[in-house]
């Protein structure tokens, strides 16, 4: 552990020193290509010709379209002609199949001033709309426009961080859980629960709510992960620590291209898949498919001391767990885009996901009296299976106005999810020596559920003046959930017992409207926003005839304020504030006793209130030529925190009842530092450190305590380009010991069962520190580098282990859990396609022939 501390400290000091010595000025991202021609890949090979630049020519005075004007694309280095055309009758021009690189667009027509505009085609700016270009007689040329950028592994903006998954080698062949482990500021525990600044974020897929867990999304289907720690009024108000948006791949490259890939990992882990896309004329069709099979093991121990139990044989309990779980799932997506013209696009996408997870566990329990003498023991054997299916359909429309950055978007989506679970357990009582005694106690369970999400959204963006912008939009989300759960026990294990079985339904509706206005006065910028959300909830237990009347709370208002000030030498300060909410879900509200776990019963509380969070953040950003620094101070205060309360169901019982309460308050504050450096050419390092203080106050008739503590999280991502087309990547994480902040919400965890050990959540306690190091090596083959092999090893030192110490007025407990984490994976991928201008080229006979004639006559 000391070596890991030294590694973090050494790299942070080195990065800070290198950045301090860096020359001032310039903001070209580290790793941007130095090849001014943009024609050759590093190391040779032709760059793909897939860029697209378009716009419209109009008369500056009459605003009428200008046809037959000459539009030429020239190389910046030597002004040689790349391509060109004459504007159409409506003034439109469209230059397609362009290579990457910096260029000049030259526009001239008799009687008008010649215009030159700088553009740069990059993987992030393949489609560029130059808007309406006004041709003026005897006027100065329009201001030059330059678009630059190179896709790096991690992009820092002051309001959002973007992690590009295609550059993350350590998650190849894994799932979204493996991806998020590498994202700065994000912490993922061994159960797949996600935390940002030690609180649960709202997790979206393609900007929308989803019923998928992070273990049901393959890493190879993800394009990027967006992290917004303090969202503006434009975003949903749900989520204590912001939003994580998982963006799926959508291939829109011109021509025909695709990829196939497959991999294998130690311990029966396999993955395979591929994607394909065809773009021709006004149509773009893409599809991808991924298959993932995973097996892993887990074990753990729990030592618990019961206080004032009323029975001497229940003073001490020791549990040991050994589990095996796994399964497989398939992920498919097909998308269609129809480009009606340069500024109107209709998109339709369909996602299909299905799979099955299985879990087997042996849980041994030993009970001792106050003298630590064993009094009884048993072993519980659990078999369970969980299957799921998810269908998601999205229809979208996008209109780009002639004015740059003015647009209207609208979409509607349907997300249908169904699941079924079955299994059961048998508990065998044993003699003190471990021999079976009597017949085992049997219990079976089976159930199914479905969740339907319906959402619609429309957003409008309108630039105002030179620096102003107005945004507004509406959104509606409807969620319908239904579930049945049957439990049988004893000799007639397959006959449902009404007192143990349950069924329920509920309906949630959220309707929202927002408005944002932003502007700048010299170096000072501001954005003011307000979001209003109306929440409607109703539920029922059909088998008992119980109905929970719809609740219509007063619409919640969620303001946001962003203030920024640009300093000299690429520096910026920003101060922002937002108000957020976390509403109790049905399981926390329904007053029904869940007996499915014999050691941990659960019951909802219909009197729960939403918890509200006020979030304040102050940030400083500095950009050098090859270095970036982002530092943030933040404060978060939550009132009516939804927490859990655990107590024995009766004196002398080892079974706990978990109920939900509103704690008085919780607050945290801290500092987060993120540094991205290019140490030398070909070696990039991103370091993220989060230092924070937390406090939780619980005051009620049953418990009264305060839990507070300081902790920190550090994460380092290093990428090194080596000779022979090799790339080496290292990711190191360390989470220091931290206090437990019990919440009733989830964090996007795993979809397949878990260890049935006693895990009460409300006790005052501390989570032990945890660390891990992942490494990966990638090798590109063939002259075109289209064949790639990636070898990765996760948790190199096998240190990823979860430990927790808890104490309440009823018990004290020490728990340690471990899942398989050191995994060696080998993946192969092959990219194919045709990008030349002769394939699937949109043809226009008149403009094509005229363009060739003018080029031959030197008209450009």
Automatic annotation (TrEMBL):
Q: Name one GO cellular component term.
A: cell outer membrane
Composition-biased stretches, type Polar residues, lie in 419-432
Any idea where the Outer membrane protein beta-barrel domain is?
399-741, 762-830
Query: Keywords assigned by UniProt?
Result: Cell outer membrane, Membrane, Receptor, Signal, Transmembrane, Transmembrane beta strand, Transport
Q: What topology in the membrane does the UniProt record assign?
A: Multi-pass membrane protein
Task: Report the subcellular localization.
Answer: Cell outer membrane
Which GO annotations describe the biological process of this protein?
Answer: siderophore transmembrane transport
The secretion signal range is 1-19
A Pfam family of this chain: OMP_b-brl_3
- Molecular function per GO: siderophore uptake transmembrane transporter activity
Compositionally biased tracts (Low complexity): 29-40
| Region entry Disordered, spans | 23-46, 419-444
Protein name stated in the entry: TonB-dependent receptor
What is the organism of origin for this protein? Chitinophaga barathri
